[in-house]
């Protein structure tokens, strides 16, 4: 993907404002949530640093946050905030997969991170010193975004990763038990199985699991049971997750390899290149050939 390619799409943030500056937003937060937020799935990852008292509801779990904390939300799990104290303040940043290049090869998968993955612990309680350290990183992001530096979003990505690694270093004050919901367990298993098929490293490595039925059979459950669980937990159909992951891998292969379109089509489980061409164009609005030419700068 070109440096500015992800900046043209934008997304709608939690305050309803469309974000056009690189699929990223960072803000100072102060008494924004005076009423409970809706329990829905958002289209972005979110990291919140704050002081105040509230309750976070996510998946089948609720946790009281009554001390300085960092929280991590992902696009797969619906969540809601329930404010308890009248006053709280802090910061938050929101970003998409495109912004962080989450599906890049050798990139730490957010879905594997204990902070973001389904069933992980999304809350990290902080000491005053830890809060101050993370606050400094948020302030640097805000300052960097206000500059005219052409590569400022690359710098901001580094700050986001620093916050994530700082949180990984901290021992949570209150461990959250692994969700017991059958739907959450099934969804976790499906997502893990989906990610195990990637990255595709050779044209001869065709995907073994292509449909929701293939995943259901592998998990030894009925496909309707799988579909219901995944939609209930993530708000998206099983086929949508499969489709989006294949498209993400297709874009990487088109950009980073010299494979032919036919080789990529076969590696991604398509029997004929024409099927892959139609699939890719329907999802992205361009043909694989056009996408490859754009990413290699040939046009």
UniProtKB/TrEMBL annotation:
It comes from the Bacteria. Gene3D superfamilies: Homeodomain-like (1.10.10.60). One of its GO terms (molecular function) is sequence-specific DNA binding. Residues 214-294 form the HTH araC/xylS-type domain. This is Transcriptional regulator, AraC family. InterPro entries: Homeodomain-like_sf, HTH_AraC. Keywords: DNA-binding, Transcription, Transcription regulation. Coiled coil: none annotated. It comes from Chitinophaga pinensis (strain ATCC 43595 / DSM 2588 / LMG 13176 / NBRC 15968 / NCIMB 11800 / UQM 2034). Pfam families: HTH_18 (PF12833).
């Amino acid at each position: 993907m070109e440096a500015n390619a992800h900046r043209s799409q934008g997304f709608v943030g939690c305050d309803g404002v469309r974000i056009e500056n690189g699929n990223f937003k960072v803000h100072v937060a102060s008494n924004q949530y005076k009423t409970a937020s809706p329990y829905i799935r958002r289209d972005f990852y979110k990291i919140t640093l704050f002081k105040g008292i509230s309750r976070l509801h996510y998946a089948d779990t609720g946790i009281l946050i009554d001390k300085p904390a960092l929280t991590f939300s992902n696009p797969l799990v619906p969540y809601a905030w329930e404010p308890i104290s009248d006053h709280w303040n802090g910061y938050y940043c929101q970003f998409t997969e495109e912004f962080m290049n989450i599906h890049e090869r050798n990139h730490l998968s957010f879905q594997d991170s204990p902070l973001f993955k389904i069933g992980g612990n999304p809350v990290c309680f902080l000491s005053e010193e830890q809060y101050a350290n993370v606050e400094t990183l948020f302030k640097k992001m805000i300052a960097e975004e206000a500059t005219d530096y052409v590569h400022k979003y690359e710098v901001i990505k580094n700050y986001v990763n620093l916050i994530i690694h700082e949180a990984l270093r901290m021992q949570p004050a209150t461990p959250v038990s692994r969700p017991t919901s059958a739907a959450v367990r099934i969804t976790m298993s499906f997502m893990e199985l989906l990610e195990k098929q990637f990255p595709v490293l050779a044209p001869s490595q065709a995907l073994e699991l292509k449909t929701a039925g293939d995943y259901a059979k592998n998990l030894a459950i009925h496909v309707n049971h799988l579909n219901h669980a995944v939609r209930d937990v993530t708000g998206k159909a099983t086929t949508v997750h499969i489709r989006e992951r294949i498209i993400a891998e297709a874009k990487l292969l088109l950009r980073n390899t010299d494979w032919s379109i036919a080789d990529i089509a076969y590696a991604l489980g398509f029997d004929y290149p024409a099927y892959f061409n139609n699939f890719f164009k329907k999802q992205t609005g361009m043909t694989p050939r056009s996408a490859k030419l754009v990413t290699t700068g040939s046009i």
